[in-house]
TrEMBL record:
A Pfam family this chain is assigned to: SEC-C
Protein name: SEC-C domain-containing protein
Species of the source: Paenibacillus sedimenti
Top-rank lineage group of the source organism: Bacteria
Amino acid sequence: MNKRLSAKDQKALLNAVAKARETQQKMAAKAEGKRWLEIEVPLALEGGLAGLTKNELTEIRTNLAVKGVSSMNKEQLAGVLEQQIPASLHELLHKFDETRFQVLKQIAARGGYTYSLIDNEQLAYFHGRGLIFSGKHKGKHALVIPQEVLQSFQSLDHKIFSESIRRNTEWIKLTHGMLFYYGHVRLHDLVSMIKQLTGLEVEMDEYVSIIQDSIPFYRKIRPSSSGFFNELMGINPVVQEQEFRLDLSFYPFTKSQLLQAGEPDFVDRNPSHRAFVDFIRKNYRISQEEADFIVEDCTDNIRLGHSPGYLLKELQQQLEIDDLLLTQGFMGHISELNNNTRQWLLKGYTPNELSPASAPALLMQQPPAKAEVIDFATRNKVGRNDPCPCGSGKKHKKCCGA
């Protein structure tokens, strides 16, 4: 059976793709236009809600977990939300981290509106909770906190949120850092590692609530059936491969390493990364930023489990690689980058770290196991103050257990 598309079918397929792209662009332009309609300053919450669709009001209702209003029409739902949004601010702030708290604090300090903008995804987070509305004011794009929300925010004692905001900031950054290096982690492992890193108890339900609420703001991770994924991870064998490596624990990163990796624009620019960037710039008239982006894309593909051959093909679509010596140079740098990249399939280790030559050094990094000594005569565990099973007559802690 011939599976090749005819010229007519190819043309029809290309036309369909072009039409879909055009439709998507029109929808995006329409949404952008609606985002910046004229807006009143100061803004009453009633006026802000009146400009929303029923679906947008339902999104706010869902995010605020408002019950018993699913059968209401648009006007009724807006009336309920007008009361619920300011009242819910106290609970919402206990879920905030430092970044989101500072957005509200800074706009409030400017009288409830600002011309300094956050990105559309972050705006969507606040808009989806009825906290910030956008529009055009005096010919400029503006972000506006409704008066009722502003008054509620200003009336609260911000000191009572400081501890939860600090904790949430740490939890979110540590989680982002772990998923940057590990790709996917089961929930119980995440909670266990955060307990170990912070030295504090972590309630699983509370942890999940904090992380879930932060996802639409940062868009760096997403939930799985058993834990959380890195946002880059699609349908691939990473989780299954990790499950097969039961004898391999997650790489023991320090708290500071994970907090650093949890920063929004973090890139792990190891020596192999930097050398690859220099190689590309030496052979092509390209900026540092462009070369860095190309290598960063290669690193992402390595984390996803793609082969060096796949990376070379991807690079050939971006750069003209028409020389054997140049091809060999690329393969050398791809191989170095691969061997020194912390991979999701390897639970955060690099291939070089798992080579036989690196095994002793790695064992030194692992936390010491709590060894148990068994007296083979009695089959009982030997305590530190028990007689040593070697027969010396000394206590075990001062003999073989020393």
